[in-house]
Design brief:
globular, Rossmann fold, 17% strand, alpha/beta, 12 helices
Length: 283
């Protein structure tokens, strides 16, 4: 494993492409191997044991690709299976999305009143709540599952009446002005699908609320980790053909339905993807 090796990015489906997009922007000289386990999604409703089993299989595949770092771009896997993945990839840095998002929220919140929206599994396991309280024990954290946001993002319904209504439904009760101690001043987008709805989410929030996107904070942490380990690539070291001439080199893998991955993924990456560019693999 050297500085020219690719960075692995793992998600249960296409949501992690928001993290990949942030990584490409932060690390334009790197190459990436992205795996979306589309045959087994959603992970958010499955047991921790099942998520761990799937994630360890994915870790084995990334080991075969010789990745120098693995970014777990799935909040559910970050919450349920990160230790198992790190054990499987001993010696390879494994970075999840929960800790960077929690750290950013703690840093930007003036009062420590922090709200989190995520999938059912991430909320149920208390991943962000625990991570925030470890960093800021006096914080007051509220969390809400927002599963409809996932469906809206995948269908491309990121604006309009339906999206606005969903945002008000989820966020209105969390940011009521009559809450004891006052409403939260910071919101964490605890699912990689949610940045797709950032505009309607912001519109549903009171003025002045900070919104933390774990995709951008994770990308910043990955860049720092690679630089500190001396693993940052130079442009000449790229090995994987680029998805587009002016973007970082990306290899896209999925476990089912390459055409749907390409269609939906194009919206998440904000780049055209053809089904032929998506390789089907078997875990």
């Amino acid at each position: 494993m050297g500085s020219g090796a690719p960075i692995g990015v793992f998600d249960s489906g296409v949501g992690g492409l928001t993290v990949l997009k942030a990584l490409c922007a932060a690390l334009p000289t790197e190459s990436f191997v992205y795996l979306g386990d589309t045959a087994r999604l959603p992970y958010g409703t499955k047991s921790a044991a099942t998520v761990t089993r799937y994630s360890v299989r994915a870790a084995d595949m990334f080991a075969d690709y010789g990745v120098k770092c693995l970014v777990v771009a799935c909040n559910t896997v970050s919450a349920a299976a990160l230790p198992a993945v790190r054990e499987r990839l001993a010696g390879v840095p494994v970075i999840g999305v929960v800790e960077p998002g929690a750290q950013a929220a703690c840093e930007v919140s003036p009062s420590g009143r922090i709200a989190v929206i995520a999938t059912e599994g991430t909320v149920r396991r208390g991943a962000y709540q625990s991570a925030i309280l470890r960093l800021r024990p006096q914080a007051r954290v509220s969390a809400q599952a927002a599963p409809l946001f996932v469906a809206l993002a995948e269908e491309g319904l990121c604006s309009g009446e339906v999206a606005d209504s969903a945002a008000r439904h989820y966020l209105g009760p969390m940011f009521r002005g009559d809450l004891p101690g006052g409403p939260p001043d910071t919101l964490v987008l605890g699912c990689t699908h949610f940045p797709m709805l950032a505009a309607v989410i912001r519109a549903a929030l009171p003025a002045g609320v900070a919104v933390v996107d774990s995709a951008t904070t994770t990308a910043a942490q990955v860049r720092s980790a690679l630089q500190q380990a001396g693993l940052a690539a130079q442009l000449a070291q790229q090995r994987v053909p680029p998805l587009a001439p002016d973007h970082a080199a990306v290899r896209l893998l999925a476990t089912d339905d390459a055409e749907r991955f390409a269609r939906v993924g194009s919206r998440f990456l904000e780049r055209p993807i053809s089904g032929a560019e998506v390789e089907l693999v078997d875990l």
